[in-house]
Design a protein that fits this description.
With about 300 residues, the chain is an alpha+beta fold. The protein has helices at about 5-15, 20-35, 75-90, 110-115, 170-175, 210-225, 255-265, 285-300; strands spanning about 1-5, 65, 95-100, 120-125, 145-150, 155-160, 185, 200-205, 235-240, 280-285.
C-alpha cells in the first residue's frame, strides 16, 4: 500500500520537482485512485528523457497558442494551467490553446486547480473522429470531454464529462472482455446500431442533440480556433479562466454559488465534485509496484 501524497510526491520529483510536475503527478495518481488506470500513471509510457517539460511561452499575455508535440502531455497541460492562472489574475480573463497534445488524462484536476485559485476554469479536448453527430451515421468528432470548475471548499463544483455515450477506453475494454455494449451507444461501419464492440465504427453523442452540440462546441474551440483538428501529432486542448472577483462588491459570486448549491441539493440534485479524494486514501501494492517500475526507468541510467 502507498498513500496518495507519497505516490504523488515521488512522481513529482521524477518529473522535475516543479509546480507543474506536482500538479501533473497529482492528476495521474488521482486517476489510478479513482479506478481509471488508463488515465493514470500508465501515461508515463509516453514519458521520455528528451521530452520538453513545457512549451515555450511568449511572455505575459492574456491568450496564447502553444505547440505541445514535443512535450510530455500531462506536464504541458499542468504548466499551461499554472501560467493561465497567473495570466487570469493579471488580466481578469485568459485563454490558452494547445495542439499536438498526446494523452494527458482527465481535465478535472486542472480546472479544479483554477477554482482553488479563486478563478472559474473551463477546459475541453478534441480528438480523433470517433463520435457521429446526432442523427448521423459516421464518426466526425472525438469524445470531446468538457470540464468546468468554480468555488472553493465545500461549495466548489467540478464538472468533467465526455460528450459521447462512452469513451474509446470503454470500447477497447469491451473488445478484450467480449462483453456486449448497452443498446443505443454505438454504430457499426454501415451506420447501424450495434452492441458488439468489435463492430463499433462510431459512438453516439451523450444526450442526443444537446450532447452532440456540446461536442461540437469543444471541436470548434479546441479543434478549429485552437488549431488541433486533424493534427496527426496529437489532440487540441483549450483552457479558459476568468476572475469573478473582478466584478467587485456588485456581484457576490461566492454567496450566489453557496445558494445555488443549497437549492440544487435541496431539490435532490448531486453537486459534482470532480472525483477528488481524501489525502488519507491509499493505493494498493499493484499500483506501488507499477509506480516503482516507472520511476526506475525515469531515474535510472537511461533516465536522469
Amino acid at each position: 500500500m502507498i498513500a496518495i501524497p507519497d505516490a504523488a510526491g515521488r512522481l513529482a520529483v521524477a518529473l522535475g520537482g516543479s509546480a507543474a510536475a506536482k500538479l501533473a503527478a497529482s492528476a495521474l495518481v488521482e486517476a489510478d485512485a479513482l479506478g481509471l488506470p488508463r488515465f493514470g500513471i500508465a501515461m508515463l509510457d509516453e514519458w521520455t528523457v528528451d521530452a520538453t517539460p513545457a512549451p515555450a511561452r511568449a511572455g505575459a499575455q492574456a491568450i496564447d497558442w502553444l505547440d505541445c508535440s514535443s512535450c510530455f502531455a500531462p506536464l504541458a497541460v499542468a504548466s499551461a494551467t499554472l501560467d493561465l492562472a497567473q495570466a487570469a489574475r493579471q488580466f481578469g480573463v485568459a485563454a490558452v490553446f494547445l495542439r499536438g497534445v498526446r494523452g494527458f488524462g482527465r481535465l478535472a484536476p486542472f480546472v479544479r486547480h483554477l477554482a482553488d485559485a479563486g478563478l472559474l476554469g473551463i477546459a475541453g479536448a478534441e480528438g480523433p473522429p470517433f463520435v457521429a453527430p446526432h442523427g448521423g451515421s459516421r464518426a466526425v468528432i472525438g469524445t470531446n470531454p468538457l470540464a468546468l470548475a468554480i468555488g472553493q471548499g465545500a461549495d466548489r463544483v467540478v464538472i468533467d464529462v465526455a460528450t459521447s455515450t462512452a469513451t474509446m477506453a470503454d470500447i477497447r475494454n469491451a473488445r478484450v472482455s467480449g462483453a456486449l455494449l448497452p443498446d443505443g451507444i454505438a454504430l457499426d461501419g454501415e451506420g447501424r446500431p450495434t452492441s458488439i464492440a468489435t463492430e463499433v465504427a462510431a459512438l453516439l453523442p451523450r444526450g442526443g442533440q444537446i450532447g452532440s452540440l456540446l461536442g461540437l462546441v469543444v471541436e470548434l474551440m479546441a479543434g478549429v480556433a485552437g488549431g488541433g483538428r486533424g493534427d496527426a501529432k496529437g489532440r487540441g486542448v483549450f483552457i479558459l479562466a476568468f476572475d469573478p472577483a473582478r466584478a467587485g462588491d456588485d456581484v457576490d459570486w461566492q454567496t450566489r454559488l453557496a445558494g445555488l448549491k443549497r437549492d440544487w441539493t435541496d431539490g435532490g440534485g448531486h453537486w459534482p465534485r470532480g472525483g477528488s479524494l481524501s489525502p488519507q486514501a491509499e493505493l494498493d501494492a499493484d499500483f506501488a509496484q507499477r509506480l516503482d517500475a516507472h520511476l526506475a526507468r525515469m531515474t535510472g541510467p537511461s533516465g536522469r
